[in-house]
Input
Amino acid sequence: MNTKIVAFFALFIMTIGASAQIDRSKQPAAGPEPEISIDKPQEFELKNGLKVLVVENHKLPRVSYSLRIDNKPISTGKKAGVESLLGSMLGNGTTTISKDEFNEEVDFLGANLNFGFSGGFASSLTKYSDRILQLLADAAINPLLTEEEFEKEKTKLIEGLKADEKNADAIAGRVGSALSYGTKHPYGEFVTEETINNVSFGDAVAFYETYFNPNNAYLVVIGDVNVKDVKKQVKKYFNDWTKSVDVNSAVPQPNANVQYTQINFVDVPDATQSNLSITNNVKLKMNDPDYHAALITNNILGGGGEGYLFKNLREDKGYTYGAYSSLGANRYGASRFNATAKVRNAVTDSAVVEALKEINRIRTEPVDAQLLKDAKAKYVGNFVMALERPQTIANYALNIKLNDLPEDFYTTYLQKINDVSVEDIQRVANKYFQADNLRIIVVGNGVDVIENLEKTGIPIKYYDKFANAVEKPVFSKPLPAGLTGDAVVKNYITAIGGEVNLNKVNTILVNSDVTIQGAPFKPKATVKQMAPNKSFMEIVVEGMGTVMKQNFNGESGFIEQQGQKAPMDAKTLETKKSEKGLFPELYMDASSLALESLMTIDGADVYKVKVTKGETVSYRFYDVKTGYLLRTEETAEMQGMSMTTVIDYSNYKEANGIMLPNTMKVATGPQVLSFETTEVKINEGVTDADFN
Output
């Protein structure tokens, strides 16, 4: 397939992102201060230790059950992942009801029921409450744990780990937790293929028997129920749940914060952007006097679109699509402050500097009074909206129990939020944002970012993808003497069929199956091209028809989206008219090509070639061994900010003597689209009439 085709799909992705933007620059006028009234649950306890909290709410004929196994954080060491394997098997049948029958009955009742290794949740109409509670209890007490199901879940988990091997986000999450807490801490240990293979079916069963019991269990019931009826039902279905021996394991202390602010760098050679995480450990608990002020302080720094980080890194600098922060509270004294962003390689160092500037700003400069007022209003609104969800009420009731909170903690919540002062913000920021003891975890492509990171003057330590300290890697390989960008491009032309064959191609027709990450639909795409520069593209979704069409006849063109047709703007027309032929490499001038480096993408050595066309700069990556094009990268301005489109090519197949990529993935910012070619026609199926 001609590589220029994918530019159309990049435009489609940009369109999706653009249409999703909502103007939030104007905050709605505040309504009257709400009065918070949270019903106090009625409580009872079974002899086996199960504690039950019931909140009657007769507004709707529904009921929900939240079962929480409140164990201390558990370290599983060399068998990390046993808890995930157990959790994936729970809630899928019982010793008396097969998996299929169990799931079919839940669906038939119009109910929800799901489990994890730390508990379960169920909800249904009140008239089915007795049965859904029975199913919940049966699944908890008599789970259907089979070796066959265990092996299936084990295979799925390992496949997931393999899929994430080169995922910068997954690597950043694993390394960040491991360095912050330590790999022996429950919050810092991580799952690997090795630890999963260490887990046997017997280990999973033993884990269930040891930790999934009523000793530290809570059941929160909320909805259109009667306490007396609930008590009868719970006793009926949970009374036989056997109490186990208490496991009094101590929770280890997490790692201490670093002695000085430093960059902890993880090299991912084919990363197209850097994942930043600026973090330090905190010992904040919900019953601390600072708690409410800490919430608002974090909200002002990085709680959303109005936060310092977002305003700077996205709106002012255009480095990223979003920059946020979080400040955790944990009753075991193990949590983190964490400021995060994903940024373009070229601005990684600048993003680090600017993020640190904003962290320092909230520590040293009094927050604007109006900004503080707005932050409080936003938090109050979110709090009130959350009260509409039964699970929120369940969590609040449990929080009071588990975190040693006063009974009026949530009824006085808004008042405590509104009492936060400008002085509180600065005091709390200095206490929990450790400007001199920050880990700046950067996961990215060392070839592109390390030189500039070194210029920041911040000490850099190097780690592998599993948080092991390593020596500074060699970030680039020596280029062959005398090799030029022009030679690399000519080698590509030869590799895919040769100049003579490529010049014989007058038309190309391509049909593809398209997958858009996160979208519930799978479009089909048709692209037609005719030399020198005529092009047509249509994207169709079943049940929706044509969602996008683009057409250029050599002189004029239009873009149609969801029935709205508009002519191409002058800049787009100029670009289209300047295109030559169907294979751009045939027309690249040697003076526009610069061989920059020899690097690695997905284990393959590639030549990185810089292409300059007027004021536009892009990059093309060619496989050293095959000569094929494996990736293109280009940054363009859209909606006032820079957007980088990365296109990966693979699965080259022959068509009429020409090798074309049949699998492609296009990533523009957070939007990812991939497609598989289902049909290619060369010099047939396309006429001049297609472009009218």
The two ends are 23 Å apart (CA to CA). The chain is about 35% helix and 30% strand. Confidence is low (pLDDT under 50) at residues 16-24. The CA atoms of residues 399 and 405 lie 7 Å apart.
